[in-house]
Amino acid sequence: MATAARELTPAEASAHPAAESVVVRFAGDSGDGMQLTGGQFTLSTALAGNDLATFPDFPAEIRAPQGTLFGVSAFQINFGSTAIETAGDEPDVLIAMNPAALKTNVGALKPGGLIIADEGEFGARNLAKAGYDVSPLTDGSLSKWQLLSFNISQLTMDSVKPFGLGNKEALRCKNMWTLGLALWMFDRSREPIVDWLKAKFAKAPELAEANIAALNAGHAYGETAELSAPLKQHHIAPAPAEAGLYRTVTGAEAISDGLVAGAQLAGIKMFFGGYPITPASAILHHLSRLKEYGVTTFQAEDEIAAIASAIGASYAGQLGVTSSSGPGIALKGEAMGLAVMTELPLVIVNSQRGGPSTGLPTKTEQSDLYQSVYGRNGDTPIPVIAARSPADAFECAIEAVRIATQFMTPVILLTDGYIANAAEPWKVPDMSSYAPFPVKYLEEVPASGFKPYGRDEKLARPWVKPGTPGLLHRIGGIEKQVDTGHIDYSPANHQAMTDIRKAKVDGIADHVPEQEVTLGNSGGKLALVGWGSTFGPIHQAVRRQRAKGRDVSHIHIRHIWPLPKNLGALLKGYEKIIVPEMNTGQLKTVLRDQYLVDARPLTKVSGQPFRIAEIEAAIESALS
Amino acid sequence: MNEMTPIKTTPKDWETDQEVRWCPGCGDYAVLKAVQRTMPELGVRPENTVFISGIGCSSRFPYYMETYGFHTIHGRAPAVATGVKLANPDLDVWIITGDGDALSIGGNHTMHLLRRNLDCQILLFNNEIYGLTKGQYSPTSRVGTRSPSTPFGSVDRSASPCAFALGSGARFIARGIDTHKNLPQVLKAAHGHKGASFVEIYQNCIVYNDDVFAPFTEKANASANQVWLENGQPILFAGGTKGIHLDRYALTLVVVDVVDGKWKEAGVIVHDETNKGVAQMLIDMRLEDGFPMALGVIYQDPAPTFEGAVIEQNLAASKGKTPNLQALISKGQTWQVDKEPHRA
């Protein structure tokens, strides 16, 4: 996904599409280790200084039946010598470890692209499972592409023979053999992979050696085998990048680190209550290793207990955080209302996935925007922030903590399965450049008297930690009396408190940056308005269309609720507005409602990210 | 509970200025008074005390205690309390809940709080009915309970709160009665136990389930139908004329007559509150089988607390590590870009 660590320079923005970029897709059985292969290829690509974006695409089943179409796991990487914004539309190279992987992925391959297939897996049984009557490797059906097939299984077995592994274990090294070949193809160093294998198999050195042997054998195969034309070595030059320290980061890592950074900038400890759910669990895993940063993690008995415990921790003076995906967020709804009513800080991270219900657990979607903005009983305003890329998730997490603690409110941070799992290079920020926003607990009775629901200029109520003498009070989910916080159902009071809760959240718009035009002009013929992980394809599509001279601009919204206060005026400067999103038009509805603008939807809910070409087509159609 | 210097307070110090809004004659008033009378005896500080409740009649309780208080949502008080206690283990946390709140909508949280052994007191007001929603039968209602939702009588068998607690791994289980003079004693014992202390309080709902406990709570029935347990003491009732004997072959409890106070001769057992097997049998004693109701501390066998273990592990995992945010975000495989690479 997009490298939001850096936006395009004007020179890049006007340049033609990067010639020096390649899209490679590794596809195999879910037991073939394709995610691992892709991850390690990503690492060596990042170390080679290329910009990159990845797209892991795997089945919901941990080990789906071998050789089946639905058991195919794929990992796509787009890397190059200029800014890379997406995981790429069409792969240039497809590495297919079995017939099912070939069948499910070859359709996306660019005409003339290269297929590398493991013919050792193209036996009658696997062909039948994938629904092939005859082997596509021999029947000419792949003539649109370049095809290289060799018996990777056998070559791997041969390479690890000296280590005396069983057949099954030996075949497990297949992914490393393939990785070795890919590293040779793109002139990547094997060294980081060798180091990684040694560390991973520290307790079983013979496995480390076998895997390294397979890796080397794959690499040597590329170098020495007398292969026909297509397999030639590519060299992709490093992408231009600002000077500094870089690393690859996934969204889950960036959110975890961002939350820790936010808590440190607020000067408070963090409590994370979570319950396992795909694709959000990675955040719980990361944070549970960061205890020295004042982080307590709690794997609760269910989603409700996860948020309720976080609310309890916030009540006691820590930063309460909970995280889930759509179905789990639905369960947390009532407790979110409690956090709104008791006006306690809380961060709720939603790593969105395909819905409704269990939906598509491992596929990406942006269909929880309504749920975030509207999805609770009562008038229950909650600020919503959406991250647009793994690296951007770091900044968004800090922003969520800032708003939660400064305004005494729960905040929803939206990300999605794509952002959570995908990796991108990230220029490590200088933490000293962030302004702290220290929390001030109320610790003694103010001159004007203690009002548990009294307010500051931002309409935030005081945060009093239990244990503080002189400030004893009671809070709860029943309507609170203005100022005192006592129970009060009276009509005038409920009107007043509803108005205050709304005004407080609306007022956050005065404390967030105004909306900028991400690429293009303030006003014109057409604006593409996006949010979240559609950043990459929208940005590239707009860039390409602008290079063709079309009057189109890209606006990408981070603050979904409340919306930036200049957004309405900004949108009214365009003749047409298109909102590309991976749902059936949710931000579109909000924009129409808030600004009475004729925002048109461009929607996709296939579980796959937008392709640049799809967005370009929409632009062309709108401007023709 | 916590280890601070005891301070002197009076019951009055624990009352708020809020009007108490339970039905006249509700058992909740008696429990509130008992708690307010007990707090001074514990020597604890109001500002260090937190009452956390769910939803139901009894869950209004925190508003009437001059402490910190959190009236949360239906069934979730144990989960909120877990966050409070993990964030600040020095706080003295009391959970106020009811039969519907703790055993129906919040059964899952009650189970997990007990098995984790979070240090807190759980007061479960059992009135065998949903009072706040106007009288539907609850998970503790007896079979045949007629209510607006069961006009022909309920057909599902009832849950036993203390058996549920024991099965969930609770290390302190006690029973009390709303209006009984022994309630403060039970509360003190619960507070003195380090870990999750589960107290079932038989509480009369005067409007929707009046006198459901009368067969053993009425003065006239008390002596014959209540047995107050005391650790290390013989299990006697009916003025010492009856006792509980363990049939060691059938592994069942039996009521025996005690003549002239000779309980040993009658085979009456001595209450050992750490004996989980006997605790289960005491909990299961039913009036309709000719037994008295077991009251007081039924089971107590302390174990390490959840928050203690979490904090210990947090400290151990942090030992020798200096938090450095810049280092944290610079982790993993990194590379340095020294200058803008030339553009081809």
Give a written overview of the molecule.
The complex is a heterodimer of chains A (624) and B (344). Chain A contains 22 helices and 20 strands. In chain A, 36% of the residues lie in helices and 19% in strands. In chain A, strands 9-8-10-11-13-12-18 form a seven-stranded mixed beta sheet. In chain A, strands 2-3-1-4-5-6 form a six-stranded mixed beta sheet, sandwiched between helices. Chain A has a four-stranded parallel beta sheet with strand order 17-16-19-20, sandwiched between helices. With 624 residues, chain A is an alpha/beta fold. The two termini of chain A are 29 Å apart. In chain A, α7 (174-185) packs across α9 (205-224), α10 packs across α11 and α10 (251-266) runs parallel beside α16. By secondary structure, chain B is α/β, with parallel strands linked by helices. Chain B has twelve helices and 14 strands. Chain B has helices spanning 27-42, 77-87, 99-105, 107-116, 161-168, 183-192, 214-217, 219-225, 263-266, 276-284, 306-318, 325-329; strands at residues 49-53, 68-71, 92-98, 120-126, 129-130, 136-137, 172-177, 196-202, 226-229, 236-237, 242-247, 252-257, 293-300, 334-337. In chain B, the strands form three sheets. An eight-stranded mixed beta sheet of chain B has the order 2-1-3-4-8-7-13-9, with helices on both faces. In chain B, strands 10-11-12 form a three-stranded antiparallel beta sheet. The longest helix of chain B is centred in the N-terminal third of the chain and has 16 residues, at 27-42. The relative contact order of chain B is 0.11. The mean pLDDT of chain B is 95. The interface between A and B is large, with 78 and 64 residues.
